[in-house]
């Protein structure tokens, strides 16, 4: 698959850093608006392995409060969860008023890896395609702001990223045998994605595709688009004032030898 040169042209570091910081500052405003207005926001991140979802989520949340913005990255379902209604374990992670939930993969696992790898039955798959639009309409009707992003990466770029991770001991944990097997099932995943889009790209919760052969461009494009879809306004911040430190009233710190301190490792450097 050929790359689109326009999607991978490099951004200058200064331009990228400046725009990233500007978008992150706007996301802080979104967080404060969500809190002030009692809004609920759900953002779904989907795409092939190594498509850049995790890096984008990391930049989105860098300056946001974990009390209000949560990342839901669910592990393999337990035996008990396998007997529940499929959407049940995802419902537990939906936001309350004043919260944002970012799904690093979501209920769409059933339409992707479960479908391709045979982890669900054909009946379970068809039932998902029927129920998913209904489920999402219910979320939107209840007032949740639902946004869905598909990160699209070319086969050659995915393989390059896999190879880079294999050679990097600090990032090998990002790879699994399932990830590597996806290389041999590229067309199967493509067909599954296309069918998923046909059934779940609904007016109430459309899919937005992010070209992600260039991670930097993908991050900026996705963040800018998300901001454009949320009707937030800047909430006036509370004026804070540093209080005067009171005069000492006779407190004495216990002797240092009575406390166990962390060794000064930094002093051994250089």
From TrEMBL:
Task: Fetch the InterPro entries from UniProt.
Answer: P-loop_NTPase, Polyphosphate_phosphotransfera, PPK2-related, PPK2_PA0141
- Which enzyme class? transferase
Give the protein's recorded name. ADP/GDP-polyphosphate phosphotransferase
UniProt keyword list? Kinase, Transferase
Quaternary structure (record): Homotetramer.
Q: Which organism is it from?
A: Pedococcus ginsenosidimutans
Region listing for Disordered, in residue ranges: 239-270
- EC number(s)? 2.7.4.-
Q: Which residues form the Polyphosphate kinase-2-related domain?
A: 14-235
Please state which protein family the record places this protein in: Belongs to the polyphosphate kinase 2 (PPK2) family. Class I subfamily.
Biological role: Uses inorganic polyphosphate (polyP) as a donor to convert GDP to GTP or ADP to ATP.
Q: Which domain of life is it from?
A: Bacteria
Basic and acidic residues composition bias: residue spans: 242-256
One of the entry's Gene Ontology molecular-function terms is: kinase activity
- Pfam families, sorted: PPK2 (PF03976)
């Amino acid at each position: 698959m050929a790359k689109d040169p326009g999607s991978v042209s490099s951004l200058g570091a200064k331009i990228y850093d400046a725009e990233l910081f500007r978008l992150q500052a706007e996301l802080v405003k979104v967080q404060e608006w969500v809190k002030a207005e009692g809004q609920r926001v759900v953002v779904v991140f989907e795409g092939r392995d190594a498509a850049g979802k995790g890096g984008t989520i990391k930049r989105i949340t860098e300056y946001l409060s974990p009390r209000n913005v949560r990342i839901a990255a669910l592990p393999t379902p337990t035996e008990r969860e396998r007997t529940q209604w499929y959407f049940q374990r995802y419902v537990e992670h939906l936001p309350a008023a004043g919260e944002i939930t970012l799904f690093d993969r979501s209920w769409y696992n059933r339409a992707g890896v479960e479908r391709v790898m045979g982890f669900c039955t054909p009946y379970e798959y068809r039932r998902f395609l029927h129920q998913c639009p209904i489920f999402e309409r219910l979320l939107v009707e209840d007032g949740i702001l639902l946004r869905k992003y598909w990160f699209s990466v070319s086969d050659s770029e995915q393989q390059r990223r896999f190879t880079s991770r294999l050679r990097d001991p600090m990032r090998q944990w990002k790879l699994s045998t399932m990830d590597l097997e996806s290389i041999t099932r590229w067309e199967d995943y493509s067909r599954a994605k296309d069918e998923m889009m046909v059934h779940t790209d609904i007016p109430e919760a459309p899919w937005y595709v992010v070209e992600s052969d260039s991670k930097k461009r993908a991050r900026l494009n996705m963040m800018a688009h998300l901001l454009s879809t949320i009707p937030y306004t800047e909430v006036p911040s509370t004026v804070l004032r540093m209080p005067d430190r009171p005069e000492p009233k006779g407190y004495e710190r216990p002797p240092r030898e009575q406390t166990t301190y962390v060794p000064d490792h930094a002093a051994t450097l250089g």
